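[job 4471] stage=fold_predict status=RUNNING
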Amino acid sequence: MERVIIDALEDIPEEKGLIGEVIRFIDDLKREMVPDLNHANKYNKATVGTFFSVRDPQNAMRSFGTFISKIDWAQSESLKTLFEPFSYLGREKPIDNQIT
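[job 4471] inference complete, writing structure tokens
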């Protein structure tokens, strides 16, 4: 989910610069001091957490909800990809017309 949030923040013009700087910062930490950030899940969590902590340090957790509400989820390719495996829930999946 964090990767989807990062991608969505990159699509918000007023946040693109900050999220880019945060990504560079986390990349530097990963290379130089925190090799545990080589795990994608931990890297993404650190990126999202750092973004919201820097963006509004006093209200980091409250601002998270505010920024999430700005995201146009209907346009998010990352979100579509994330949920693609569930696209047939509640209906029959089409069968490929392949000759077996």
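[job 4471] summary: The chain has a mean pLDDT of 85.
[job 4471] exit 0
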